[in-house]
Specification:
This protein has 316 residues and is mostly helical. The chain is 70% helix and 5% strand. It contains 13 helices and five strands. The chain is globular and about 60 Å long.
Amino acid sequence: MAVTDTAPVTTADLELARRRQKKINGVILLCLAVFVAAAFGVTSEGNAVFRLTLPRDVISIPNLVVPAAPYAYIVAGLLAFFGIRQFMRGGGRSTNIFLGIGLLLVVTAFLTWATAGKSFSLTGMLESTMVRAVPIALGGLAGVLSERVAVVNIAIEGILLAGAFAGALIGSVLGGFIGIVGAVAIGGLFGFILAALVVTHRVDQIIAGVAINLFVLGLTSYVSSQVLTKYTWLNNAPVFRPIRIPLLSDLPVIGPVLFRQNLFVYGALIMVLVATYYLFHTRSGLRARAVGEHPEAADTLGIDVYRTRYINVTIA
């Protein structure tokens, strides 16, 4: 077996990579500046009116009126400034920070352009965005927990679909909270199956994930078309209404967005905090990261690599 020598990464190599990243981000920001000026600045007319108060809000605040074209040019100027800065003195952590700020500014410019001459409920959009971001957040957490133990979890969509389908089915029969428990159990079961395939039986991780996705998609599609259309009472799960947090829910803008949401939004926010604490502030999280970064060294130190991977993938 041939041995390939790998040159060690030096400080000069890292500095060269940082400079390259800095220049790439600078080019992206400059291109975005040109795009915003041409697409949003030239074609915008009138003012964009953003409604910040919902009809059920206790505290009313005035609407936010933004001149569409001037705002687009201001955003383009800021993007150009950030892009030039990357070439002159960027680098390090600030490189990605300025890129993130630039992308956020592009989103605000797009919203202003789309709302020019009309009114738009900004608070309502943010409130709905929080609800619709829950599956993405949960899928991202699943991916992080799996990747930290060196398991590529391609089956996230299938596991989410299986859990949602089981939750709706069980919730229709036994109630909403029992449905949540059933959804978690079914999701954990498919996570355990994925762990068994890729950890114990050494099945290719991509193939195992795709197989689970296709299996769940076919199973749920068949049951939906052949069973739930005939027995509609099996697809009538209760809906979880928004839960108001006293005082905080009455705050303008952030009240409806963060403190007047349903159980799933609060659960997703809590799980993000719990997962962060678990991975970076507990011994179990340290073991999981050790298994993902160097499983042979972790095994030498007495960490059960298989058990750690099973636990994390099942939780994911």
